[in-house]
Q: What sequence folds into this?
C-alpha cells in the first residue's frame, strides 16, 4: 500500500514539474489567430525564466484571478499612446508621428488620449481582435511575473 501512495506522489510531482501546459482558447479575443475552443501547447513560464519576452509573442497570463491569452504589444521602457476615437481604440508604440496624430485627434475634439511608459518588468498586452478583447487598454500593463505560459 505504501508503494501505491509513493507512486501517486511521484505522478503528481511529474505532472507539476512538466514544462508544458495544455491551454484551451476561450472567447474570440485572439481571432483570427486562435479560435474559441482551440487547444494550444504552452511552455510554463518557469521553464523559460531568464529568456527575454519578445514583442509579438503570445502568452497566457493571470489578471484579476482569470487566465487570459494575449499578444505582447509593448515591452518595458516602450512608450505607448492610446487614442480613443469614435471608430475605436488606436494603439501606437514608440510613436514617432505622435505629434501628428495628437493634432489630428485634438482637431476631432472628443478624442481621449493616454500616453505612458511601460514600467520595468511590465508587459502591454493586446488581443488580436481589439473590438472584443479585454486587455492592457482596460487593465494596464501586466507584471512579467503574472505570465503563466508562453505559446510556442
A:
Amino acid at each position: 500500500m505504501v508503494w501505491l501512495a509513493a507512486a501517486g506522489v511521484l505522478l503528481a510531482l511529474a505532472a507539476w514539474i512538466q514544462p508544458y501546459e495544455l491551454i484551451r482558447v476561450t472567447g474570440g479575443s485572439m481571432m483570427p489567430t486562435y479560435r474559441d475552443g482551440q487547444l494550444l501547447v504552452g511552455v510554463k513560464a518557469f521553464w523559460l525564466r531568464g529568456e527575454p519576452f519578445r514583442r509579438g509573442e503570445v502568452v497566457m497570463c493571470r489578471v484579476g484571478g482569470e487566465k487570459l491569452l494575449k499578444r505582447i504589444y509593448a515591452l518595458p521602457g516602450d512608450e505607448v499612446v492610446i487614442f480613443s476615437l469614435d471608430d475605436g481604440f488606436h494603439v501606437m508604440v514608440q510613436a514617432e508621428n505622435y505629434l501628428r496624430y495628437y493634432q489630428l485627434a485634438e482637431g476631432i475634439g472628443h478624442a481621449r488620449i493616454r500616453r505612458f511608459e511601460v514600467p520595468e518588468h511590465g508587459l502591454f498586452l493586446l488581443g488580436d481582435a481589439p473590438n472584443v478583447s479585454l486587455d492592457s487598454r482596460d487593465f494596464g500593463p501586466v507584471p512579467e511575473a503574472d505570465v503563466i505560459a508562453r505559446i510556442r
User: Anything to note?
Assistant: The chain has two domains: 18-74+119-152, 79-117. Residues 2-17 form the longest helix (16 residues). The first strand starts at residue 20 and ends at 24.
